Amino acid sequence: MIEGTPKSAHTLTVIDRSSVLLTGVEDVIRFDEGAVVLSTVAGTLAIEGEGLHIKQMNVDSREFGIEGKINSLGYLDKRARGRGLWKSGRDK
Questions:
Q1: What is the dihedral sign for C-alpha 55, 17, 80, 88?
Q2: Is there a domain that residue 1 lies in?
Q3: Which one, of 18, 15, 54, 21, lies nearest residue 40 by Cα?
Q4: The domain containing residue 50 runs over which residues?
């Protein structure tokens, strides 16, 4: 965990669109090479890209790392369900 960051904090760091480091991850909702959907203490986070893979995962410290080509990321609210990522062809 980032020093001085409480377990309940959420941080998001994107490095050169090829790496994402997160804290405050509660659960992995969905993961494949094209998309990652995570439950965080700040809400549901969707990351889309290409060739995505897990770089690190620590359940105790709630840290999560992804590598690959990052195309987009955003937080989803209940109104977003049924649109965008939730209704993509990848969910078959």
A1: negative
A2: no
A3: 21
A4: 11-74
Q: What is the pLDDT of residues 15-53, one digit of tens each?
A: 999 999 999 999 999 999 999 999 999 999 999 999 999
Instruction: Evaluate whether 54 touches 66 at the Cβ level (below 8 Å).
Output: yes
**Dihedral of alpha carbons 45, 55, 32, 35, sign:** positive
Domain count of the chain? 1
pLDDT per residue as tens digits for the range 55-76: 999 988 999 999 999 999 999 8
pTM of the predicted model as reported, rounded to 2 decimal places: 0.75
Cα radius of gyration (the chain): 13
3-class DSSP state of 77: coil
Amino acid at 80: A
Token digits of residue 9: 């904090």
